[in-house]
Fold these 2 entries.
Entry 1:
Amino acid sequence: MALNFRFAVVSDLHIALPHTIWDHPSRFHLVEVSIPAFESVIEHLTQLDLDFLLLPGDLTQHGEPENHLWLQKRLSELPFPVYVVPGNHDVPVLMADQQSIGFADFPHYYGKFGYDNPEQIYYTHQVLPGVRLIGLNSNFFNEEGQQLGRLDNQQLIWLENVLATATEELVLVMVHHNVVEHIPQQSRHPMGNRYMLQNAPQLLELLRQYQVKLVFTGHLHVQDIACSDGVYDITTGSLVSYPHPYRVFEFRQDNYGREWLQILSHRVESVPDFPDLQHLSKQWMGDRSLPFLMKFLTHPPLNLPPEQAQEIAPSLRYFWANIADGDALFDYPQFPQKVRHYIQAYSAIARCGTPHLIDNNSTLLLEKMRD
């Protein structure tokens, strides 16, 4: 029987009850809208006859127990199954402290949302007949207690065993950190590499070996679809930062056995207290962009002198907002040639040199990978 189903992805919710919100002058995201924006999304999604909903991490502002409890309760009230994985904000510390839950506590909060085994922070679940979801944990703490984006070896061994027994199923993978690069040289860029899974090549090799074509990620807070040798990494922007997006997917198999994935992106346009959310949020991001832009321009690979970066930065006020929006096209002919060409590389351009606007609304043909 051909597979046909509908699901949604909402990422980086950063849920924060009002009394838990902490402020920082350079933060890009509007945590103030986390709960009303999520309620707006849920109001829409409950009208769509979804088969399930995926939340690929950063569910809470900073791992606060009360924010996890609020979300746990709200998810239990929804009319469709929900599956989650932890982001770096959900388990920011190995052991619980006064602010955040501990790393091992996470599955205990989300037993109804994928974590049948509370002692394991990754899982697999048959979400529909013939459809298997694998929820991975990309939060890794080294010997110094530093949090990194990495899959531990035990998890990789477990994953290969799961994939080896799921060869007759469609497999979907959800993980917080990016698996395929979404910005130029992301895995080597000094500002972009922390959003990448450190051992992404090892994971990609496994996924290709077992013909897994779809990975759903978050963390980067941008709308982007990237592909590496048949594996699509579909990352969804944050619900609390411009453009406040979420996605609805339709998967279908046609009469010839071909697999298609239709992607429709939506935005939260307004919430109480923020009636013109899109405009205000873009302004908010632009107002806080200067420190980011100075770092971006003065660090490798551009390495501009601070004086030159100061001159260029105002023209790039909405640079990251446009990237976050997806399908961005950039050209700044007034910039020095080196800078102009580098900024152009962030555009949604296919290898043939023409615009390739697939980040928000598109239909992908998921072709069989070559052995």
Entry 2:
Amino acid sequence: MEKHKFRPECIWNIDETGYSTVQTPWRQLAKKGEKRVGSIVSHEKGSTVTLCGAVNAIGNSIPPFLIFPRVNVQEHWTLAAPAGTLCNAHLKESGWMTSENFMNFLKTSL
């Protein structure tokens, strides 16, 4: 920091993670010897939504950036997201972060 004269507010940590759109079932408890144990399991494949977030060295953050594996983004997808959340659609089925999405994240966030 001293060599390049960076201030803490100029140092950012950016990370991404993927979330599945299908819930995983909880463990089922049953009596010992019970033959039938009911559980509800979703057999759909689901898709991955990528979340990208950034925090600087003094603790400030910018709103998260979501990447959906769809052609068009619909507004109701972000109703439960934090205020200011930005969304982007990815034309491929993966919904992963690409260089185009990352540049879009930087341009719209910073």
